[in-house]
Amino acid sequence: MREIPIFFSIDDGFAPFLSAALASAVENCSKDREYKAIVLHQGVSEKNKARLSALATDNFQIEFVEMQKGLESITNRSSNCMRFDFFTLTIYFRLFIASMFPEYDKGIYIDSDVVVLGDLAQLFDMNLGENLIGACADKSVVDVDIFARYMEQAVGVNRHKYINSGVLLMNLKALREQKFDKHFLSLLNEYHFESVAPDQDYLNAICKDRILYLDEVWDVMPCEGHTPVQNAKIVHYNLFSKPWCYDEIPYGELFWKYVAKGGFEAEAKAHRRAYTNEHREADKLCLKRMLERAEEICRMSVTFRNIAEGGVQIAL
Fold this sequence. Notes:
Blueprint: E1 3-11, H1 15-27, E2 34-42, H2 46-53, E3 60-66, H3 97-100, E4 107-110, E5 114-116, H4 120-124, E6 133-137, H5 145-155, E7 163-170, H6 172-177, H7 180-191, H8 198-207, E8 211-213, E9 234-236, H9 252-261, H10 265-274, H11 277-298, H12 304-309
Parallel strand pairs: 1-2, 1-4, 2-3, 6-8
Antiparallel strand pairs: 4-7, 5-9, 6-7
Helix pairs in contact: 1-9, 5-11
């Protein structure tokens, strides 16, 4: 029976939060399948590697692979920043999984700010057909008019078809055949598209029309005012909705349950205590800047949509 590869990406500061993702995935996996969590990382300490590795079981392996080489062209510039306020290479690691791991024809990528409540074998077993990826439509921002217009006018994707890149079922064989990583780097280095969500926007633009849309239970995000999703398989604490930063985040109790099982409860609680009103004000300012930036990008001549309409191949 095939081993199920599950990719995560972190730096050392995110190790406590990954522990909740791993502990929950291990607890809810089938005892009849084989799983392997592959943690792509940048500078995770040996101590944290050992603590996270201790969560492995007989049928759920955990391996660490350091990333850096080959990503030198992704530099710290505004167009490559996450949330508009900080730069981290880790968000780009998912784009190189296909070429880095030729032994796998299929795999799962999951952001590390999650808890996994379902069996990932159910996700892995879905038939991708000729699609490059499977993902959920991003319902966390589709109701924000500025972001919705940005999806359509800048990225060139219908607002209801724009996917969140935090949970991906990946057709690694097809991505290799299409030379996805080289295509991405070519676009990045040629156009330096200004972007609100860099890796996510590239995935949406490049994989357009070759996406299997997953049921929303596989990427449930805590959205204020939204009806809670029943039978969530993965809860994704995206953007600012982090239980280790804010109280009363929907589904937050699940994070605290699993971070305790993951062995990093003390670190997570310390982070929560240290998150001050100054940090909260900075988050509000960041969101304001993201909205302003989204509007600015829509008015630019160099956008995914404009370049594609000019005859350049963006979508594979």
